[in-house]
Design brief:
elongated; 6 helices; alpha+beta
Length: 372
């Protein structure tokens, strides 16, 4: 194998897939990148067998071939090099050379045949197309609500509910539930899958740099995301996701409309004096007014703040875990938020104001806590 490539382009390529290199593994070959050069391009693969990342970049190819190269050493070398043409070629001694303007290095390589085969999806896999921005927004708007639940693994990921008219991304930890709905993604028939939050986080980091469409192909066990030269393959969570639509409140008649940042900052200020174990804050609602209070009797702490607001409905006192409420508010991009309540015991619905374009995309559901 021999090719010439920009050192900066090669560094960008290996860094794009390096998130799939395992920190610890019982299979040492996975501590390497798989390089495969053919037809004027270099394909770089990294995998921990649960998550695989692959990208390609154009090279001046002198001789094709493939090899596994040590990830840590090649990354450190490329980071230390200024951008310049870099010649990479294998030698007969089981090593490969990197030659630059005024120097060279020799590193070991391993047979490409030792690298495990990457399983993708079946030929009859479902296919949908996501705009990269929409998919990144959907993951970013829901991933924080996923759970860490060994007993219910389905809750540890984002549920993709794909329908003929729209697609909804859902995440829940049983205390809060977030739905992100987009009309940009449709399918010929209804389908779904559950993406674990770890690969979802990796995918979002990749998509933040892209603006192309993302092709998503999935079957019962795996999903493949392809965007530009980068491909991500990962295993899906097997299981049935709860019927989330049944828990979305439809008739909450007590309605609070308020500036999102004002409410978020007030909750954060008052929560400083909340009990550290529970983080509970209390909302007391009356027409035109919201009072938020918190206290920790054990340490003689208390906080109180009153806000003018647009509230229509019955007088109501309801409690929330402040950290959950702050998470939802901080992950909404709207200026005005609407909270709809039924009573102190049933879930509150949190959505952007109807006047804002995001109002049809995102909604949050937060379970209340009992207050004295």
């Amino acid at each position: 194998m021999e090719f010439i490539v920009s050192s900066a382009e090669l560094l960008r390529g290996v860094m794009n897939v390096s998130r799939a290199i395992p920190a610890k593994t019982s299979l040492p070959i996975l501590e390497n990148f798989l390089f495969a050069a053919d037809e004027g391009k270099l394909v770089i693969t990294a995998s921990d067998q649960e998550l695989t990342l692959r990208t390609s970049l154009p090279v001046d190819l002198k001789e094709g071939g493939s090899m596994a190269v040590p990830a840590r050493q090649i990354i450190e070398l490329l980071k230390a090099l200024p951008d310049q043409p870099l010649t990479v070629k294998t030698t007969s001694e089981g090593s490969f050379e990197c030659l630059w303007n005024n120097g060279n290095s020799s590193l070991p390589h391993f047979p490409a045949a030792d690298y495990p085969e990457i399983k993708t999806v079946d030929e009859d896999a479902e296919t949908v197309i996501f705009p990269a921005v929409t998919l990144a927004d959907g993951i970013g708007g829901t991933i924080y609500a996923t759970a860490d639940d060994e007993m219910r693994p389905a809750m540890n990921g984002i549920f993709f509910d794909i329908d003929t008219a729209s697609t909804t991304l859902v995440a829940s930890d049983s205390h809060k539930l977030i739905c992100f709905t987009t009309d940009d993604v449709k399918a010929e028939h209804k389908s779904s899958f559950i993406l674990h939050k770890k690969p979802a986080s990796v995918l979002k980091a990749i998509l933040d740099k892209e603006d192309d469409d993302v092709t998503v192909r999935f079957d019962a066990g795996n999903v493949v995301f392809t965007c530009g030269p980068t491909m991500m393959v990962c295993r899906l969570i097997v299981g049935k996701y709860p019927r989330y639509r049944e828990v979305i409140p439809q008739n909450n008649s007590n309605i609070l409309r308020i500036d999102r940042l004002q409410l978020l900052n007030t909750v954060r200020r008052v929560a400083v004096c909340a009990n550290k174990a529970s983080n509970h804050v209390k909302f007391t609602l009356s027409p035109g007014q919201l009072e938020i209070t918190a206290q920790d009797l054990g340490f003689a702490l208390a906080a109180y703040e009153k806000i003018e607001c647009d509230y229509s409905g019955d007088e109501l006192a309801i409690g929330f875990k402040s950290s959950f409420l702050a998470e939802i508010l901080s992950n909404m991009g709207c200026e005005t938020v609407v909270m709809k309540f039924m009573d102190a015991r049933r879930a509150a619905l949190i959505i952007p104001s109807e006047e804002e374009s995001a109002s049809e995309k995102i909604c949050g559901i937060l379970m209340p806590i009992m207050i004295s």
